[in-house]
Amino acid sequence: MHTKTLVAAAVGLGLITLSACGSTDGKGSADSKTVTLVSHDSWFVSKNVLKDFEKQSGYKVRVLPTGDAGQAVNKAILTKDNPQGDVFFGVDNTLLSRALDNGLFQSYEAKGLGTVGAAYQLDKDKHRVTPVDYGDICVNYDKAWFSEHKLTPPQSFADLAKPAYKNLLVTENAAASSPGLGFLLGSAAQFGDEGWQGYWKKLKDNGVKVVDGWEQAYRQEFSGSSEGKKAGGDRPLVVSYASSPPAEVIYAKKRPSTAPTGVATGTCFRQIEFAGLLSNAKNTEGGKAFIDFLLSKEFQQDMPLNMFVYPVVKGAAVPADFTEYGPAAKDPETMAPDKIAANRDQWVKSWTSLVLK
Hints:
Layout: E1 8-11, E2 34-39, H1 47-57, E3 60-65, H2 69-78, E4 87-92, H3 96-101, E5 105-106, E6 130-142, H4 143-148, H5 157-160, E7 169-172, H6 178-205, E8 209-211, H7 214-221, H8 226-231, E9 237-241, H9 244-250, E10 261-278, H10 284-294, H11 297-302, H12 304-307, E11 310-311, H13 320-325, H14 337-356
Helix pairs in contact: 6-14
């Protein structure tokens, strides 16, 4: 959701304040009554919801943010023998195989897992990770810009390569950013192993701009976001999330009647985020209790307006604002975890050579 190198983001849209409870000195939970959560920077939960968990479980929660999703996963792998905490949140399906192949997590079948849709359970045989949320990485467009220029916004991957949209799109570096990687994987799912490189050659010829991460793309280069307007952003198309438009409404100083940004629904890639009990965690029982909490209806229903992601638990309510302005994509591109694992690093290497050089 930050980039979430995201979901961000939710998903994680970077429009909200990080909540960290207790110390964040980076030491594991040495005492049995503290649970340390290691996460990407876009973790957020309402204070009253976290307090309910602490009261009911008897554990105190300490939050340790460690960068965007890609950075956080890499740091967790490097410290797996002496982990910084007990639970890791924020590894998504684009990076999942890297975490699992490096033995980052130990098995734990969370209570409440039976309420989670089968499509989100990507490690259901071994239970090394627990699905927590999902969202869609999609191209967003600046409604006012397209209206002023009397141009129909693009709706598909193929549209983005058309001359009408030359020099309009900004995306994130697929080697460093979760939405950037998700957009690359979406194009590979759309055009196939043989066709995606030709597609990116067309995008490059059509003036696609690549920046390091979501913050720069969405909040500086994109003309449709409130921050981008202030920064003088001149790109009316950006790779972001299907949940970005409701954030523009909810966090506006003066609430608009409709979202100022829209979603090109044919450009979406489904992102699923997971939590896991870290190998060598000092407080495994507290970690298990916390993972159970992540699947509670209270937490799942708290997520949408905090991290701008959708709950995975069946029956969890989603606020009307969220469904009205940021509905999940009806037919997003997806990719099997083993296919991502087999191709991700080579695709990123090829993409870098093709697009950045």
